């Protein structure tokens, strides 16, 4: 098979990603977290790395507008998964933290992903899966280091964000 006959990179990356997301959604619903949506996964991924974050930090890391982040946080807050609290370093600024319920979801997501990785590793072999992960990690780090990861999805998204800035100040 020649390179031109093989599936394109977009399809190769999309299929496992969609499978991963679907597994997470189904297993979270089974675990009693049916009100968690795919869009919320960005918040849980970011929150797993820090104890609290601003809307601006989350928007940048998630590569979506602050308005979108605010909407997601409003929804998570309404369901008891997140809370906005004063920043201990600057009381005028509010930060977002996961609640105990939110941390439980974050732990559940980690378990689900670990199970999926184990399953996929069993399908392709541990060595090949480890190489796959290392390659993805290298590529992600290299793209980030060289500034090739977008901060927004498009110029029009940046324009919409500038037109309606949300403030992290209480």
Structural description of this entry:
There is one protein chain. With 170 residues, this protein is mainly alpha-helical. The protein has one domain: Arc Repressor Mutant, subunit A (Orthogonal Bundle). The chain contains seven helices and two strands. A two-stranded antiparallel ribbon has the order 1-2. The longest helix has 25 residues. The termini are far apart.
Termini gap: 59 Å
DSSP strand tally: 2
| Structural class assignment | mainly alpha
Q: Could you report the average pLDDT, rounded to the nearest whole number?
A: 84
What attributes characterize this protein structure?
disordered C terminus; Arc Repressor Mutant, subunit A; 7 helices; globular; 61% helix; two-stranded antiparallel ribbon; 170 residues; mainly alpha
Summarize the structure.
By secondary structure, the protein is mainly α.
Write the layout of secondary structure elements.
Blueprint: H1 9-30, H2 41-47, H3 55-62, H4 66-78, E1 82-87, E2 90-98, H5 100-124, H6 126-145, H7 155-163
Antiparallel strand pairs: 1-2
Helix pairs in contact: 1-5, 3-4, 5-6
């Amino acid at each position: 098979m020649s390179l031109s006959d093989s599936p394109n990179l977009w399809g190769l990356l999309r299929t496992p990603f969609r499978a991963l997301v679907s597994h997470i959604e189904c297993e979270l619903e089974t675990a009693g977290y049916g009100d968690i949506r795919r869009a919320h996964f960005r918040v849980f991924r970011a929150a797993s790395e820090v104890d609290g974050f601003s809307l601006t930090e989350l928007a940048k890391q998630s590569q979506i507008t602050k308005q979108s982040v605010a909407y997601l946080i409003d929804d998570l807050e309404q369901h008891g998964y997140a809370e906005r609290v004063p920043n201990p370093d600057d009381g005028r600024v509010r930060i977002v933290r996961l609640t105990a319920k939110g941390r439980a979801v974050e732990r559940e997501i980690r378990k689900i992903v670990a199970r999926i990785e184990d399953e996929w590793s069993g399908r392709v072999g541990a060595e090949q899966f480890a190489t796959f992960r290392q390659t993805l990690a290298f590529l992600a780090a290299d793209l980030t280091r060289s500034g090739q990861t977008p901060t927004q999805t498009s110029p029009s998204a940046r324009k919409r964000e500038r037109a309606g800035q949300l403030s992290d100040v209480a």
